[in-house]
Design brief:
Blueprint (H helix, E strand, L loop, with lengths): L2 H38 L7 H12 L6 H34 L11 H15 L6 H19 L1 H5 L4 H28 L2 H12 L10 H15 L1 H9 L11 H23 L5 H13 L3 H25 L8 H22 L1
Helix pairs in contact: 1-3, 1-13, 2-3, 3-9, 3-11, 3-12, 3-13, 4-5, 4-7, 4-8, 4-11, 5-11, 9-11, 12-13, 12-14, 13-14
């Protein structure tokens, strides 16, 4: 390679890194603005001065004022919305890379169905709200482990259409079984508990609590994703020859499956089944930023968080003081956005 060509290649690499840093910095700034906007907007609005005063009061441990109390409630909810959206979007990118299917989303393998069975069973038979998150997480993990055992041979093999199809088929069958159990529990539920069960299935952030576990899971999955981003690019571009190019295909497929399943289990146990975030956000980011997973993975997580914070703010505001389930808002936004994306893909 000549020195001129080497210089041009080095310049292109530096330009790509500079572009990626700029895009991620802008998205991080938008995420901060979205969270602050969610803290200010509500049935009782906070002005910028009141928000600043409330932030100071919270920093000093003084939450007796109205502004500080509102800020604490809204900030916890906005942060939960952000981390949930980021987990769903990141899981969506991983599922699409694993299954080599642009229509894959975090719920396609039935992990959310296991979470729904666990959560609704606790609501129906015990009525203990504090157990709902634990039961949902345990149900999702059990289904993920069942899928891992049933499809271990497919995950271990090289990337091929048959392996992806068998894994997808296994997930669809397991999801159908979970759906039947959910329908049975809804038909048996008394009227006093049915509303809460339906709201959980739609996806609702109103009664959720912010915990540190989602942030730990998101950070660990993002670390794995960034370290594996180059291998994911190779697997996407050269599927049949990825192993000969040095990619440990079996380990990568298992890592993608387990990371996506853990992200989905944590997100669903925190906020219920919120649709379309893990489907439209990866599509939009891939359409706008390109297919390079080194940028696509962190950008999708940031955009997913921003999108869910925006949707949850709309859910609180549209019929205030009544609050809508955020899953309804994401679906109403997601359907036309996804149809527009499909239209642009056909034109291209």
């Amino acid at each position: 390679m000549s020195s001129a060509a080497l210089c041009n290649k080095t310049s292109t690499v530096h330009d790509g890194r500079r572009r990626a840093r700029l895009i991620l910095s802008l998205l991080a700034a938008l995420a901060l603005l979205a969270v602050l906007g969610a803290c200010m907007i509500g049935s009782v609005r906070l002005s910028p001065n009141e928000l600043f005063t409330a932030l100071i009061d919270m920093a000093h441990g003084q939450s007796a004022s109205l502004g500080a109390s509102l800020l604490e409630l809204r900030l916890n909810r906005a942060m939960l919305a952000f981390v949930t959206g980021a987990m769903l979007a990141l899981a969506g990118v991983m599922m699409q890379a694993l299954l080599r299917n642009p229509l894959a989303d975090p719920y396609v393998l039935g992990v959310s169905g296991g979470a729904a069975v666990g959560a609704l069973a606790v609501m129906l038979f015990f009525g203990s709200l504090w157990l709902v998150d634990v039961a949902a997480f345990c149900g999702a993990v059990l289904v993920a482990l069942l899928l891992y055992v049933l499809a271990q041979r497919d995950l271990r093999g090289a990337i091929a259409e048959n392996n992806s199809s068998l894994l997808l088929l296994t997930g669809v069958i397991v999801a159908s079984g979970c759906g039947a159990l959910v329908t049975l529990m809804l038909s048996l539920a008394p009227d006093g508990r049915l509303r809460g069960m339906v709201f959980w299935l739609i996806g609702d952030l109103s009664g959720s609590q912010l915990h540190v576990l989602p942030w730990i899971v998101l950070a660990a999955a993002m670390l794995f994703a960034l370290r594996a981003a180059r291998s994911i690019n190779i697997m996407a571009l050269h599927a049949d020859a990825a192993a000969t190019l040095g990619v440990r295909v079996g380990a990568l497929r298992k890592g993608l499956f387990l990371s996506a399943a853990l992200l989905t289990a944590t997100a669903v146990s925190s906020a219920g089944s919120i649709g379309f975030v893990g489907l439209i956000v990866p599509h939009a980011c891939r359409f706008a930023l390109g297919p390079d997973h080194r940028l696509l993975l962190p950008a999708s997580a940031l955009v997913g968080g921003i999108f869910l914070v925006f949707a949850d703010t709309l859910a609180r505001m549209l019929l205030a003081p009544q609050q809508l389930p955020v899953g309804v808002i994401t679906s109403l936004i997601g359907v036309p956005v996804f149809l527009m994306q499909l239209h642009h893909l056909r034109k291209r």
